[in-house]
Amino acid sequence: MLKTLPDDTILQTQGLTKEFLGFAAVSNVNLQVKRGSIHALIGPNGAGKTTVFNLLTKFIQPTQGHIQFNGIDITRESSVQVARRGMVRSFQISATFGHLTALENVRVALQRKRGDSFNFWSSVRRLDALNDRAMALLEEVDLRSFADTVAIEMPYGRKRALEIATTLALDPELMLLDEPTQGMGHEDVGRVVELIRKVSANRTILMVEHNLSVVESLCDTLTVLQRGSVLAEGNYATVSKDPRVLEAYVGVEA
Ligand SMILES: Nc1ncnc2c1ncn2[C@@H]1O[C@H](COP(=O)(O)OP(=O)(O)OP(=O)(O)O)[C@@H](O)[C@H]1O
């Protein structure tokens, strides 16, 4: 039975479980994400973080449990419905079109929000009308100077920023970020951290992140998963001192 959602909770899971051939990748996870917060999902490799993300965005269906977004039961909805409701995931593997420029990528995403992305050729004039908005989004992620650069020629960190811009184009209320700093050098990590802080201003962010210093500097709440279950939850100061968490990470962070 679904419990009523407190008003400041944007996303809640109850008893969320996913089994693959009898193996519980996610087991009875009760998650509460507070509106306006930056919430991290952390845990050692294989803990179930990606599976939780796949369940939330409806890439896979849960074996058991419920998901509520803004008080609505979305457990049986499709990925498209969930995205339309305002929960949008920025992909770990680049979701941008490599041969389009940064500006074109954002324009396509804006068009997708309007639901007419397949009317590509006949809507060139309308696409041009979206230029201002697209430029503003590029500006927001500090990519104005890359507007005319094709995505495949952009440095890795900038490509990730472009992904964030294409996600922002959908105006998500809750943005899911899948390891946003993965594979980045120190300088890019700092830039993406600042970017996430900036774009979190009017929205909620749920992120999977391995880099604990990123989590420490950005996140209000951490949920630690281990072997598919919630091991600990709280702010960084509390969670990082939890002996169970320290044990779970022994050998992993070395
Ligand atoms: N489609 C699948 N079929 C079978 N097992 C799966 C499937 N997807 C995930 N698993 C298993 O579920 C467990 C959780 O995997 P998941 O990818 O969610 O972990 P993770 O915390 O995201 O790990 P990582 O940090 O390495 O990305 C792992 O043991 C994985 O092998």
TrEMBL record:
Keywords: ATP-binding, Cell membrane, Membrane, Nucleotide-binding, Transport. This is Branched-chain amino acid transport system ATP-binding protein. One of its GO terms (molecular function) is ATP binding. The keyword Endoplasmic reticulum does not apply. Residues 11-252 form the ABC transporter domain. It comes from Rhodoferax ferrireducens. Transmembrane segments: none annotated. InterPro entries: AAA+_ATPase, ABC_AA/LPS_Transport, ABC_transporter-like_ATP-bd, BCA_ABC_TP_C, P-loop_NTPase.
